[in-house]
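Suppose a classmate hands you a notebook page containing two proteins, each written out with its sequence and a corresponding row of structure tokens. How would you begin to make sense of it? This section walks through that situation. The first entry is reproduced here exactly as it would appear on such a page.
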Amino acid sequence: MSLTTSDIISYRENGYHIIPNFLSPFQLEQWRTIIFGAVHDRAEKKYKFPTVNEDDHTNTDLDYYDNVFTQRVNLWQTHESVKQLLLESGSVIGKIAAELENIDCIRIWHDQALIKEPFANPTAWHLDIPYWSFTSLHAISVWIALDDATLENGCMYFMPGSHKVTERRYYASNNTFTEIKIGKNLSDILITYPELKQWPTIAVPMKAGSASFHSGHLIHGAGANMTSGRRAAMTIQMMPDNMIFNGKQNILTKKQMTELKVGVSVFNDDNINPILYKKLR
């Protein structure tokens, strides 16, 4: 699977790239079996480690957020089958992500299964990178539909080109991103970015097995699940090599937080943030 020049230009203009039928029917069934098994084994625990902040700081109302989706983070750390699945897919997923972002090496920041249960709440407009423990204009995620994602069951929505707005604000704010919590009000992000009030939005329904790559500073969200069925997706959040710790906990344990030094510590440990793809020179 390879990208065209047009694909790359479109991604950099719009902040996202959709690949229909990214997984073959056989691969889709494999992903569903492995991911759903890992989610079941994790039971009610969002994270592997009890010292990670379970009251996720990205939200403003835990009761509301818990009914946005079932979220199980870093399944690769608890299930060897998930780890092998992601690393074996890395030659494709990582290569695409690296080419879209024009970087030579890309690592896993974390993975997460995101399952909108029947009648789950919508996911408010947000951008990802302000939540993470590093800051980069080249962070990128892949969102793989394990079920059909429809207008009725909570497909993704994007604000095409909004990554250029957040990037301009980043440079104007001394290379920082403003963190916008995910709460009940879908439009909270417009308080920080009022210039987006008239911005066009696009719904992104996807068939199971299709994939969406989107920039870490693209504004996106998802609809409510208005059906009695689940809508499942598997995502991988990725970062360039040698990212520097910015002081935020996100998925880090309390032990890691005591060991890392803001502005000094580098995320380049293959055991903690495995390489998905590295360009050969």
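The notebook's second entry, a different protein, reads as follows.
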Amino acid sequence: MTREIIAILRGVQPHEAIAITDALMDAGITRIEVPLNSPDPFDSIARMVDHAGDAAMIGAGTVLDVDAVTRLAGIGAGMVVSPDANPEVIEATKAHGMASYPGVFTATECFSALRHGADGLKFFPAFKLGLDGFKALSAVLPKTAATYAVGGVGPADFADWHAAGITGFGLGSNLYKPGYDAARVGKLAAEAVAAYDSAFS
């Protein structure tokens, strides 16, 4: 089962990146992003890509410019996640063959992102949009649009968001905070996967 969960490792450091990647993969989470405002993020991503190979999609979050996209492509990253919907970033991501997950909040941003080639829409911060806001937006979006709730949404909310039609989730502090070791991340990831499987089965 391919779970639509993206683990967000904000603050992860290169020396711990591989162990945490293994913990996430062992639990069943195979999409992992390292936000670029983490310590030495390109180093962490390169290590994770080399280690995981095709077993996981490794990429970056908080990607704001084309230069970062180009650098990510050079180290073999598989996806680019952003807090905004910059058309240039989306187009550059797709030109390099990577998956694009831009941040959106309004109908204008959603449709702009899709027109420029986004693979999925990252609704951020999802807890501010809420279920009612998401339902209103999803009513006008293409049925094929992949949608992800990110920010203030955790495993306890999976069932409600699934019922509203969400595709998946981005999980940050629910899975990792600086100082969490691989064992703790693995435990939290297993709990998130169980909640996802229960909601989406």
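A careful reader of the second entry would note: Residues 182-200 form the longest helix (19 residues).
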